[in-house]
Amino acid sequence: MEYLKAVLNSDKNKEITNLKKLIQTGKKLNKNIKKYEIELNKYNKEKATTPIKIIKRKTKTNTIKKVSKNKITSSSKYTIESVESRNNMVIIDFKTKISKSYVKFMEKKVNNAYQDIYDIKGNFKDAYPTKLKINGVKQIVIKQEDKNTLRILFEDNYNLKTIYFLVNDKRLILKVLDIKNSNSKSTSTKNTKVTYRPGLNKVVVLDAGHGGKDPGGIGPRKRYEKIVVFKVTKYLESYLKKRGYKVYLTRNKDKFIKVRNRTVLANKKKADIFISIHANAIGKAKAHKLKGIETFFLSPARSERAKRVAAKENGSDVREMSSSTKRAFLESLNRPRITASHKLSIDIQRNMLFNARKLYKDTVDGGVREGPFWVLVGAQMPSVLIELGYITHPEESRRLYTKKYQKALAEGIANGIDSYFLKNP
Fold first, then answer.
1. Residue 342 class from Cβ within 10 Å (0-12 exposed, 13-18 middle, 19+ buried)?
2. CATH code of the domain in which 413 resides
3. Same domain, 188 and 237
4. Which residues, in sequence order, are bridge partners of residue 274?
5. Range of the domain at 179
6. What is this structure's pTM?
């Protein structure tokens, strides 16, 4: 009202004062204040009656510019604040919030060299003079591919293993997981392989779903869920151990274990995370339609799909609870643990999908979802349930039964675990 009165009375000074108050209050309340900012900018331009002078003083090494404090320097048009290499990572800090859509990845082989290429949405003032280096990587090239794309290229004589993930909405990290010192001048280390070990002092318990008398979902040509998930779990165990994790399995063979007992081992070993691995299933009517990778974390279900999947995975467990009692119990769960589980599920889903799409570009992203999975209830640590795909889908079940795809999924999960612990040490 005060602003409107100032406008009606043509009192510019009061208009400016009240515009500033509206903008300040609007920001606190998360309101749209764009129109007020536009109006205030008009007055700021009117007040700037004298031109801003730029004084250049040349030195032997560079040119120094002195500008008015109100001057928006040319660097403000750049969306990337800084790029640096540290240990086995390249860290990119942005000025604004970003999402995974900002990153596009591709692999190339040029002559005898392997390249991992990241095209990043944004522009960086010092792209050309900035030099990046990671010991054990032949070269890292950074350049502004076009005005809206920063390209960072890793190149070596062997196929590098790189991943990416977001931190705090404004930071992107590109990480080299496996480094060979193939470029070292020292003959004693020429053939030495240096492996990054982010899992030191971390305990992981892996649960291969179903087993024994419980086959889980059954797909075409008698493809059993219990077989697929056990093989992926074993590959995942191997990858994690190589990275320094201490890994335990709830079952080491085709054995039936009650759902309620699967987290007992995780609590006993004081695991840092618990991961239950499954494959989804649906009735024949929709078997040809439904496919895709999903990752769930424990929470009261909010969708019919989540309830359906949970009902399938909870099938072998018998709990003497009414539906209202179950919901009340889930609502009482430790919220920080649920939050941590949500973060873990995001990292696993993103990296697992990324790896799967290297083999099959049409892999469907089922997303990260909430669900009332009783296998996760007893875990006293962050825990997730992974659905590797639909065992009932003709094509997806065929892929799930191939060694190459099983390894790709396992490696993606391992990369997701690495990503989670790097951000949540």
1. middle
2. 3.40.630.40
3. no
4. 205, 383
5. 74-195
6. 0.56
**Which of the listed residues 179, 195, 211 is the one where a domain comes to its end?**
195
Identify whether residues 127 and 209 lie together within a single domain. no
Q: How many CB atoms lie within 10 A of CB 265?
A: 18
Cα(346)–Cα(123) distance, integer angstroms = 27
Q: Is 182 exposed, middle or buried (0-12, 13-18, 19+ CB in 10 A)?
A: middle
Whether residues 184 and 302 share a domain: the answer is no
Which residues of the chain have a pLDDT value below 70? 1-11, 42-76, 178, 180-198, 300-334
Written as one letter, the residue type at 398 is R
Q: At 381, phi and psi to the nearest 5?
A: -140, 170
Give tens-digit pLDDT for 301-343. 555 555 555 555 555 444 444 555 555 555 545 678 888 999 9
DSSP for 326-367 reads HHHHHHTS-HHHHHHHHHHHHHHHHHHHHHHHHH-TT--EEE
The DSSP-derived string for 209-240 is: --BTTB---EEGGGEEHHHHHHHHHHHHHHHH
Can you list the alpha helix ranges (DSSP code H) found in 261-303?
264-268
Q: Which two tokens stand for residue 245?
A: 């994790």
